Amino acid sequence: MSLSLGIVERLNRARGDLRMGVPVVLTEEGAGAVAVAVEALEPGRLADLRLLGEPVLAITARRAETLKARVYDDDLARIELPDAAGIEWLRAVADPADDLRLPMKGPLRALRGGGAGLARAALALAKSAHLLPAAVLVPVADPLRLAAQHALTVLPLEEARAELSRGSPLHPVVSARVPMVASQAGRVHVFRPEDGGEEHYAIEIGRPDRGLPVLARLHSACFTGDVLGSLKCDCGPQLRSALARMGEEGAGVLLYLNQEGRGIGLANKMRAYSLQDQGFDTVEANHRLGFEDDERDFRIGAGILRQMGFAAVRLLTNNPAKIRMMEANGIRVTERVPLHVGRNEFNAAYLATKAAKSGHLA
Ligand SMILES: Nc1nc2c(ncn2[C@@H]2O[C@H](COP(=O)(O)OP(=O)(O)OP(=O)(O)O)[C@@H](O)[C@H]2O)c(=O)[nH]1
Ligand SMILES: [Zn+2]
Q1: Are residues 352 and 219 part of one domain?
Q2: Residue 111 in this model has a pLDDT that exceeds 90
Q3: What is the CATH number of the domain that holds 316?
């Protein structure tokens, strides 16, 4: 009936549950588990989970590599929870903040065999909730009964997986004129996804001809760089320089995508910054936290451009992955316009790492 929740609504609710430390129930082909994000887990809940069965800790292969744990499930490892393990142990495995001070957490015993699908889904959900990618799972015999008993959100993975990989459709909500330093002919458009995720913005300068390649920039949110003027990256100067160029040409479109920290969220980006203070570079820091180098979904930018009627762009970027993803998602890149601004003594190593490891162009 129409009052029951669809998969998009359940996923959205599940993200909120995980952020509150509330367990969600994952099911697939008759199997089921209760899953909770380590970052938000409270001691009382952990004790309750232990009463249900044998808990397992899921971490990504990236995190497992740092911890020297065996990886039997490709992109993740399922670690047995020692009987004495409490919240501190779980947090220490999930969070690399104290890796150097307290390197010994093991021996970590990784499970082998049996399906890893439920654990994989729990990690994907934790990432999409911008939490550390680590989850405790307890397999249960009658997941639906348990969920009904405790009013827990149920995610049938057959449906959830398709939804997570599809990427939620974005819809224009509103647009209004905003005169800016770069151009008085500015207009801000707000786009909202169906799944309750982040909104994204398009800043249109002038009235770009939809029949011609538009000067475009895909800018990922950087609170520290864009707002605070942080010297650790080049985001602020890139943002202002891109808008200024569009203003000079009289036309352009800048997409402000709310993918803070290359898609890991501000809390995790600050964790990455702490690791950088310990000597790790931007890519190593992401890996130690359990993330890939770049967790952004670049389909979003292409989708917004298509909706706005653009088919081709002159793209302001140094990142070849952005060009590939635009082309793969139906937007022709007729020209790459380099955007080298804002280099300083604090971000020189960061920019060098991007050139060496992420293939950023000169
Ligand atoms: N995880 C993480 N994210 C960072 C770090 N420094 C900056 N960021 C984020 O990286 C993103 C910067 O993205 P972009 O400006 O699109 O940079 P880019 O992918 O190098 O591409 P171009 O600037 O177009 O060449 C923003 O979301 C920042 O918040 C860092 O050390 N770690
Ligand atoms: Zn930045």
Answers
A1: yes
A2: yes
A3: 3.40.50.10990
315 touches ligand 1 (CB under 6 Å): no
Average pLDDT for residues 334-347, to the nearest whole number?
94
Cα–ligand 2 centroid distance for 8 (angstroms): 31
pLDDT digits (tens, 9 = 90+) for 235-288: 999 999 999 999 999 999 999 999 999 999 999 999 999 999 999 999 999 999
Of 223, 254, 257, 262, which is best to mutate to test ligand 1, by the most ligand atoms within 8 angstroms of its C-beta? 262
CA-nearest of 208, 197, 213 to 163 is: 197
Same domain for 314 and 181?
Answer: yes
In angstroms, what is the span from residue 109 Cα to ligand 1's centroid?
Answer: 35
In a domain, 243, yes or no: yes
- The per-residue pLDDT for 100 is 86
| Whether the Cβ atoms of residue 13 and residue 120 lie closer than 8 Å to each other | no
ipTM: 0.97
Q: What is the pLDDT of residue 354?
A: 86
Domain that holds residue 179: 170-259+296-357
- Reply yes or no on whether 294 is catalytic: yes
pLDDT for the residue numbered 1: 61
- CATH number reported for the structural domain that contains residue 52 in this entry: 3.90.870.10
Which member of 62, 78, 120, 296 is catalytic?
A: 296
- Terminus-to-terminus CA distance in the chain, angstroms? 57
Atom of ligand 1 nearest to the CA of 358: 20
